[in-house]
Amino acid sequence: MADRTRLAVIGGGWAGLAAAVEACQAGAEVTLFEMASAPGGRARTVSAGAHALDNGQHILIGAYSASLSLLRTLGVDPAMALLRLPLQLRYPEQAGLQLRAGHPVPSFALAVLRHAGWPWRARLSLLRHCTAWALRRFECPEALSVAELCMGLADEVRADLVWPLCVAALNTPAERASARVFLRVLRDALFSGPGSADLLLPRLGLSDLLAHPAAAWLSGHGARLRMSQRVEALHASDAGAWLVDGERFDAVVLACSSVEAARLTQDLAPGWSGLARALRFEPIVTVYLESPGSALPSPMLALREGPADPAQFAFDLGQLDPRRSGQFSLVVSGAAAWTARGLDACAAACLQQAQRQLRWASTPRLLRVLAEKRATFACSPGLARPGSAIAPGLYAAGDYVDGPYPATLEGAVRAGMAAARQALPRSASR
Ligand SMILES: Cc1cc2nc3c(=O)[nH]c(=O)nc-3n(C[C@H](O)[C@H](O)[C@H](O)COP(=O)(O)OP(=O)(O)OC[C@H]3O[C@@H](n4cnc5c(N)ncnc54)[C@H](O)[C@@H]3O)c2cc1C
């Protein structure tokens, strides 16, 4: 044990867990510090028992290769744990865009041509725009917003497709969202091979999907998990080593939130810390409803958002897990305007929206409202995100770290794996 690299991972969300697993596989001696009593971070189950609810409804897509590979490493079979559906944006009153299984590019083109709700000029203009984006390799100027990128598209296409996709993927409304990041997500969804655009909906609670299997795997591979331990201080020690609350480590992966990472590095690396501190956030509100005997026409439906209608999506949890039959979640992404009005007002508006836009076998009632004020960073045009390297032997991991993705599970997992690889010498034995 004595000559293995001693690595501290600070933070046990998906980024920290991915970093810890990667480092264990490379032979390091890993200690993971997590201030909460359980791992999982923002993607965790928040209550137990019959009404165990996730901190928010999460969706993965087929292109999330690093997350899927991590699940397999942990012994979680993605085919069992996730419901795979070809990409669809179905509305209660409209079949919407529905891709078929197979390669996403022809399937997307066909789905657009078949879209009965859009006039022909709208369908053709969307295909022309997509072709132009592909010819430019999905690159565009840094300063462009999604709203500006899509100015030439028909109103129906923007309202039915672009706005909901943008707020679902970037958690930032189109007029404030980075076109460059949006195009990268589109590129990966359409061009990472068959199934890459598929929606993957967790059948398990989020903690059972990743956090619990990861904790068990790490314990089984000799990692030390220090739950309920908030790291207060990080200092440089002698010979390139680091002190985490006074305990010596050869290297550190900082996988806590950007706010905490900025605090821990403010004296060590003021420039990096300033970039992390400058990030702004977008909230997400998740409203859980109960309506015994009810079912939606598909596990996930897009909803019509409007001044009195906060939610963009509804999920039928019973179609993901039969034990949750009669439970539903409504998701309000980019929810700043609604959190400003107060959670009670948002929940009441969601309930009314659900009653107006969806069919119910019994009157739906509110089960629980969850709001995450710092759900993701605001993915705005020209945003400068802090990189992974902070100082020799000190690396950041997290969904906010500079990379191709917006704040997503995949961004977090990729950042975690990359930070662990950077933090360790080629062989983790010293
Ligand atoms: C409501 C909601 C819905 C979402 N929906 C989706 C979705 O559909 N698809 C998708 O891909 N992504 C989604 N996301 C985003 C996704 O959850 C995040 O991108 C991902 O969980 C971030 O993981 P992370 O490890 O980078 O950060 P976190 O999960 O925030 O983990 C950081 C961890 O560090 C710990 N910590 C902080 N400070 C310290 C300290 N000083 N010492 C020790 N521990 C510390 C925290 O307790 C936390 O556990 C959603 C997020 C929310 C909130």
Automatic annotation (TrEMBL):
<dbReference type="InterPro" id="IPR002937">
    <property type="entry name" value="Amino_oxidase"/>
</dbReference>
<dbReference type="InterPro" id="IPR017830">
    <property type="entry name" value="SQase_HpnE"/>
</dbReference>
<dbReference type="InterPro" id="IPR050464">
    <property type="entry name" value="Zeta_carotene_desat/Oxidored"/>
</dbReference>
<protein>
    <submittedName>
        <fullName>Hydroxysqualene dehydroxylase HpnE</fullName>
        <ecNumber>1.17.8.1</ecNumber>
    </submittedName>
</protein>
<dbReference type="GO" id="GO:0016491">
    <property type="term" value="F:oxidoreductase activity"/>
</dbReference>
<dbReference type="InterPro" id="IPR036188">
    <property type="entry name" value="FAD/NAD-bd_sf"/>
</dbReference>
<keyword id="KW-0560">Oxidoreductase</keyword>
<dbReference type="Pfam" id="PF01593">
    <property type="entry name" value="Amino_oxidase"/>
</dbReference>
<feature type="domain" description="Amine oxidase">
    <location>
        <begin position="15"/>
        <end position="423"/>
    </location>
</feature>
